[in-house]
Amino acid sequence: MFSWFANPLRFMRLSNWLAPLCYALAVLLIGWGLWQGLWMVPKDDYQGGDIMRVMFIHVPAAWLAMASYMAMAVMSFIWFIWRHEVADIAAKSIAPLGAVWTAICLATGSIWGKPTWGTWWQWDDARMMSVLFMFFLFLGYMALRASMDTRQKAARAGAILAMVGAINVPLIKFSVDLFTSLHQDSSVLTADGPKMAAVYLWPLLASGLGHTLLFAGLTQTLMRAEIWDRRTAQANAKLMAEG
Amino acid sequence: MRPAPILSAFRQALGEAWAGGAGALLPLGFFAGAAVLVPLGIGTDPQTLRAVGPGILWVALALSSLVTLERIFQADTEDGALDLWLQTGAPASAIAGAKTFAHWLAAGLPLALLSPLLALMFQAEASTDLLRNAALYALGGLAFYFWGGVGAALSATVRRGGLLISLIALPLYVPTAIFGALSMTHGPGSESAPLFLAASTLFALAVAPFAMAAALRLAAD
Amino acid sequence: MRRGVTEPLLSANGLGMIRGERVLFTGVGLSVAPGESLVLRGSNGAGKTTLLRILAGLTRPEAGEVTRNGLHHWFAHREGLKPHETPRTHLGLWAKAWGSDSDLDSVLVQMGLKRPADVPARYLSAGQRRRTALGRLLLEKRPIWMLDEPYTALDAEGRDLVLELIEDHLKSGGGMIAAIHGESGFVPTNEVVL
Fold first, then answer.
1. What is the mean pLDDT of residues B154-176?
2. Is the four-CA dihedral A225, A230, A236, A242 of positive or negative sign?
């Protein structure tokens, strides 16, 4: 089934209409979600008052931080086993986007944390810590790829690291949970999640889906750019070989 | 699988580690130096030092493992030894594991043995706890060396690879650092933490050699 | 096996290699039978070393396959010698790793390393280091020799020594593949030009 997607030509044809569609839906969903979230729904004083509205960006970003790393690891695995070039291009394209959304998650979490916890950074919050290490995993992946001298080597090194990182994520998560559970005193957001009122649920879901579609659209655009880049390089190499 | 090539790789790595200038003294000096800087930075209040001492030693251990590992596979790619090891017919994972273990033995274990002395400087009470902690530093150090080895193997062909190793290895060091520091406290959860530390070290020993092997084949390619 | 037809020690067909976007070579086929020598030729950067590494199994080719019938010795410009190793400890280490029981002293004498036998490699000259690495070929009898620029950093005497070793090896039914840029000093059975 993977090999059907593995054909760059087929990917180019598919993403030609799928990427714009993702963008259009993303604008609608994020727009509606933010309009609802920022103006329509009532504020929740227990979650810090108006500042809780940052949730409509923070929660989708947190979801994408986790999901994008897993997507990158799965793509790396597919490339490592079957050597489908499109899977490597996907992994390479997901990395910077994943890092950006992870950074958004950290920044919004920090902004939310200041009025509620009284601090910009809460070492005792397991999720902030996990997301921070996620951010480092993304940075390491990008730095490693960038330091390899050919794209084949970048693909191999990146795939090895992404897989090593992925199998370590559960252990990191577990250790961080253990670490924070012993210091727990001030976490406003309990482990089983804030009690979610139904008025927040729909805007949040819309926003989450919108962010996911935006991520998917941007991934496709980056992948298209990478495919064009490789085509150009191949054409140049051919020209040079012909003298 | 004949064990002879693996033993030879171990022997060569051990020789290399000892011959690197001052032998085990160099990482020891780094370890002690990094730890001794801390009181200069945070003040000399005995209460504070006693509280942060074990954690500082974990951080210093992690840092010195990174500094030690920077060259282990890079030198092998540069002098051609890697090519020879990959052609012995022995599994590359076993070779990589043997080399990493040798470097832990030459540089990591001495750090753990020195830790009681440094702990005393950090105002710890002299007790058998210090020896127990030394064993925990040795155990956790092994995990640092193996995950650091993955970073070192991946950046074996990269100039200025040391910075890259740190970035790659840092998230992988998290469980060991947490379990290790936790197992030296006396709060809740500190009884089970040594077991978690042992488990995460075993996990490193089981997984890291295969990642190193894949990375080394890439470095030779 | 019929008479006169010998199984090749090494054969490869359809080898192709890409580095970055550059196609180094495609459709390279070759074979080496007992007693045969093969020289890889080509200008700098043509891919001689890469091809040799593919034949040794160090580099994965983009296309094609290699079949080796037997073990091989590897001797390249990076000798694999650690700065702290002496010729004696280096050869001893590899003899142990390969499980060979050849007499180290006679190998050292044959390679002209009797005097610097116990000097660490960081004090050896380039030529002495090459001779040490070359000594590995004598530790164990292996049917295939792969040599990458075997004459680099060797003096005239060293060159003659290499030629002598190659001649003995071929005479005893071994095969050899060498990447040589300049003059080979012998008449190879086959040549591959990249």
1. 91
2. negative
Could you give the domains of chain C? 10-193 (3.40.50.300)
CB distance C97–B221 less than 8 Å?
Answer: no
Structure tokens at C22: 């550059």
For A200-219, letters b (16+ CB in 10 Å) and e give: beebbebbbbbbbbbbbbbb
Query: Per-residue confidence at C2, pLDDT binned at 50, 70, 90?
Result: very low
Average pLDDT along chain B: 89
Residues 171-200 of B with CB under 8 A from A: 171-172, 174-175, 178-179, 182, 187-189, 193, 196, 200
B-chain residue closest to A140, CA distance: B168
- Residue type at A115 in one-letter notation: P
Closest C-alpha to C73, from B92, B75, B83: B83
Q: Which residue ranges make up each domain of chain B?
A: 4-220
Question: Bridge partners of B122?
Answer: none
Rounded distance, CA A175 to CA A178, Å?
5
Q: Which residues of A fall within a CB distance of 8 Å from C22? A: 237, 240-241
CA distance B82 to B212: 12
Alpha helices in chain A (DSSP H): 2-5, 8-35, 55-82, 85-117, 126-146, 151-181, 198-242
Residue boundaries of the structural domains of chain A? 17-42+51-184+200-242
Contacts of C26 by beta carbon, 8 Å cutoff, 6+ apart: C15, C16, C63
Angle at C93 between CA C91 and CA C94, to 5 degrees: 65
pTM: 0.90
pLDDT digits (tens, 9 = 90+) for C59-116: 999 899 999 998 999 999 899 999 899 999 999 999 999 988 888 999 999 999 999 9
Q: Which amino acid is at A243?
A: G
Query: Per DSSP, which regions of chain C are E strands?
Result: 10-19, 22-32, 37-41, 63-68, 72-75, 144-148, 175-179, 190-193
Closest residue of C to A230, CA-based? C21
Could you give the CA distance from residue B195 to residue B180 in angstroms, rounded to a whole number? 10
Average model confidence (pLDDT) across chain C: 90
Q: Are B104 and B22 in contact (CB under 8 A)?
A: no
Contacts of B179 in chain A (CB under 8 A): 175, 178
